[in-house]
Amino acid sequence: MPFVRSDAVDSIRARLDHPVIDADGHLIEFTPTVRDFMAEDAGEEIAKRFDQVVQGAGLQRQIPYDQKRSFGSSRTAWWGLPARNTLDRATAMLPDLMYARLDELGVDFALLYPTYGLVVTALGDAEVRCASARAFNRYYAEVWGSHRDRLEPVAAIPMFTPDEAIAELDYAIGELGLKSVMMAGVIPRPVPGAEAVRGAQWIDCIGHDSEYDYDPVWKRCLELGVTPTFHAGGQGWGTRMSRTSYVFNHIGNFAAAGEAACRSLLLGGAPRRFPELSFGFLEGGVAWALNLYADFLGHWEKRNAAAIGNYDPAELDRARLEKLFHEYGPKAVTDRMDRLSEGLLMLSDPDEDRGAIDEFAESGVRSVDDVKRAFEEQFFFGCEADDPMNALAFDSKLAPHGARLRAIFASDISHWDVPDIREVLPEAWELVEDGHLDEADFRAFVCDNVAAMMEGTNPAFFEDTLVAGRTPGTSR
Predict the structure, then answer these.
(1) Under 8 Å CB-to-CB from 16, ≥6 apart: which residues?
(2) Is residue 476 part of a domain?
(3) pLDDT tens per residue across span 280-321
(4) Whether the model pTM is above 0.85
(5) Among 418, 417, 423, 416, which residue's Cα sits nearest to residue 105?
């Protein structure tokens, strides 16, 4: 079948001397096949419980409006896939068709993340969650596995416990031979003592102050040569719990989830303990990362173990303070000088645990360079093509200490925010046309950065692919 070529795509590709690598495309799974795999592997009873996940939108509509809060029910995605553009819908579902259209998109190689398989990041039912991961991963390997010279399906790894993550890593990577993974960096857990209230949840960010030690997972990723990439959202918690508006819940939710996971990993010390490992935070853009980088440095510079002494109540010159109060204080204050200690207590309590005042100890951060290295060399940020904020990653004059962050090109093809998949590369190129990126920046965005993310953990990642030998490799 002939397809209509895009003059804009052809014009851009004629100017490029490097591959275009899509760091976050999506496929759409054919759920009857996934369900059959699940029934074969886990049994019909588990498959029937998976049916309730597939039918989730209808079940959600049955919850009365005034009961949605107690159920923890908020408006989730609806009408989220191409319909009028039937060709694009079929493209995301059919491997041969996706493969045939890659040149039309201007893409040489694409990582294809789950769509329905995203549920693996958030399902509370452990049996269904783990069975779903296994069935989806089998689907990716068997149905999409014949085109891996240009299309790499991404395995869904459940992360509610380290043990389940390691078990699925060993299956998806070790047995099926997949080589990229999708994880969740934010795990909803029931509030202790309120387990019966479905809406009572807190978010475990799998790094700092987590319920579990996830270091064995990062260690296993290194052993298997896979880069942890996080693709979970923040809908349904915090301020994103509207019962009526998916748009209200969706705006900024991937950025919020990525920021939470990144902040937790950084403060929890994972980048320092695993300096060879890359971490990818997808679909949230890079603006949040620049803010986190600057904010973390600001906190480090003023609240590290040495600097925090500036606020130690024991350092207060009490005699001088009393003198100043008597000299300048209003009568409503000086009449109560016998209660001065009471007036100095809040936010300056002398009885704080002095063994816990170094809140950066766990992170292993000892200098600004430690933070800069993590953000420049280990962290990678998935940026959709139409996001004008992508340019922030490449402007070293904006970031403290001249940092350049690793933005990676992400098409998000097959989802509602891409009306025509042929428009993705031209949308990304607009930043060059508008003067915000030069062509070297564009190469970093659509090729070099994602190559560094994958090859940093697995130098052989692109062997036997169309782009083999055409990526820059990486070094740390």
Answers:
(1) 443
(2) no
(3) 999 999 999 999 999 999 999 999 999 999 999 999 999 999
(4) yes
(5) 423
Nearest to 46 by CA among 57, 56, 34, 58: 34
Taking residue 195's Cβ as centre, other Cβ atoms within 10 Å add up to 10
The angle formed by the CA atoms of residues 89, 51 and 140, to the nearest 5 degrees, is 50
Percent of the chain with pLDDT over 70: 99
- Residue 249 domain flag: yes
Q: Closest Cα to residue 221, out of 212, 233, 232, 230? A: 230
Question: Residue 373: its pLDDT value, please?
Answer: 97
Name beta bridge partners: 182.
156, 229
Domain count of the fold of the chain: 2
Q: Which helix (H) or strand (E) holds 168?
A: helix 162-169
Same domain assignment for residues 152 and 259? yes
Question: Are 155 and 178 within 8 A, CB to CB?
Answer: yes
Residue 191 DSSP symbol: P
Instruction: Specify whether 21 is located in the same domain as 131.
Output: yes
pLDDT (average), residues 273-278: 97
Digit-coded pLDDT (tens) for 380-436: 999 999 999 999 999 999 999 999 999 999 999 999 899 999 999 999 999 999 999
Bridging pattern class, strands 187-190 and 201-204: antiparallel
Helix (H, G, I), strand (E, B) or coil at 319: helix
pLDDT band at 56 (very low <50, low <70, confident <90, very high): confident
Separation CA 173–CA 474 (nearest Å) = 22
* Backbone φ and ψ of 387, nearest 5°: -90, 110
What are the tens digits of pLDDT across the range 79-125? 999 999 999 999 999 999 999 999 999 999 999 999 999 999 999 99
Give the torsion sign (CA, 446, 448, 453, 454): positive
User: Is pLDDT above 80 for 64?
Assistant: yes
CB half-sphere exposure, 176, CA atoms < 13 A: 31
CATH number of the domain where residue 422 is located: 3.20.20.140
Scan for tokens 């010159």, then name that residue.
Answer: 317
Integer Cα distance of 465 and 42 in angstroms? 34
Together in a domain, 13 and 126: yes
> In this structure, is the dihedral angle defined by the CA atoms of residues 284, 285, 288 and 293, taken in order, positive or negative?
positive
Q: Is 147 exposed, middle or buried (0-12, 13-18, 19+ CB in 10 A)?
A: middle
Q: Are 156 and 51 a contacting pair, CB within 8 Å?
A: no
